[in-house]
Amino acid sequence: MKKYLRILLLGIAIMTFATGFIQMVAPNFILGFVGGEMAPSNSHSFGIIGMFMLLFGGMVAHTLYEANTSKTILFWAGLQKIGAAIAVGLAINKGLFNNLAGLVAGFDLISGI
Q: What's the predicted TM-score (pTM) here?
């Protein structure tokens, strides 16, 4: 794998891991950022989503340091990012999140591609 692509993927993995950790431990902080309703069920669900973000980010970072980088893991992590972009876009369209959440969807879409 080319050096610059590996660095880019590692940066995306670290961002996903870090934001997932924040979302997992402080879901209301992220909900406030995207304009979501801070109901207990939303907060709980957001924390679970954060856990999966942390796991996917960690998985990608881990595979980038293996002798043989798994293209399968990178493929499925990319699909997860594209799926997240679609989900956030739908939430914005339904009025569940504010337009600032579009930055999140954009990052996920670009990093998924």
A: 0.89
